[in-house]
Design goal:
single chain; alpha/beta; six-stranded mixed β-sheet; two-stranded antiparallel ribbon
């Protein structure tokens, strides 16, 4: 029974906030906020003509430094929304690191977005584990900039093409086997101007 519950949680993702917060994230939830968004547990690959512009990733890295969005210019960017208290997020951490290692030489960068979490817990989670930077966004404001992703359910992973458009949305825990071919597909695309 415990295995079934864990499986259901890993498929559905984590909703609300950390245990003990009553499911409240501190983020204002607007009625109908998920209209037009990719459903939890779903995956979508957008044709180039259907891709919406991704917001600029800005903010503070977990170590307190400022993130420089210019480091992502011309890159394929994999954005992963996570929290330390989210079991599916913990389960996918090694898979994300493996996909990062396998694709970083293709002009691909990974950026984590830690939401609805405490800085100490998030920092402890990534220490010795995460190979790429994570922005600290406890209020989930960065997620609100992505029209395809709800900040109410994590994990969520997006692949942004070299023209800064959202190409892929995965609203579930990912594996390297699933993620890496999608990254390679987007990394192999020719820019629309050339």
């Amino acid at each position: 029974m415990a295995v079934l519950a864990a499986f259901a949680l890993s498929v559905a993702g984590c909703a609300g906030g950390p245990p003990g917060d009553g499911g409240q994230s501190g983020t204002e939830v607007v009625q109908g906020a998920d209209a037009g968004r990719v459903a939890a547990g779903a995956s979508v690959v957008y044709a180039a003509a259907e891709r919406g512009q991704a917001p600029t990733l800005e903010g503070e890295v977990l170590d307190g430094s400022r993130f420089d969005p210019a480091t992502l210019d011309g890159m394929v960017v994999v954005v992963n929304f996570w929290a330390s208290w989210c079991a599916p997020c913990r389960a996918e951490a090694d898979e994300l690191n493996s996909a990062y290692t396998a694709t970083k030489d293709l002009g691909v960068r990974f950026v984590g977005i830690n939401i609805r979490d405490g800085r100490d817990q998030a920092t402890a989670f990534v220490e010795g584990r995460e190979l790429y930077p994570s922005l600290f966004d406890s209020a989930g404001r960065i997620a609100l900039g992505y029209t395809d992703v709800s900040p109410n359910t994590i994990p969520a992973t997006l692949i942004v093409d070299r023209e800064r458009r959202v190409a892929v949305v995965l609203r579930k825990a990912v594996t390297q086997r699933e993620l890496e071919p999608l990254i390679r597909q987007i990394a192999g695309e020719r820019p629309s101007g050339g």
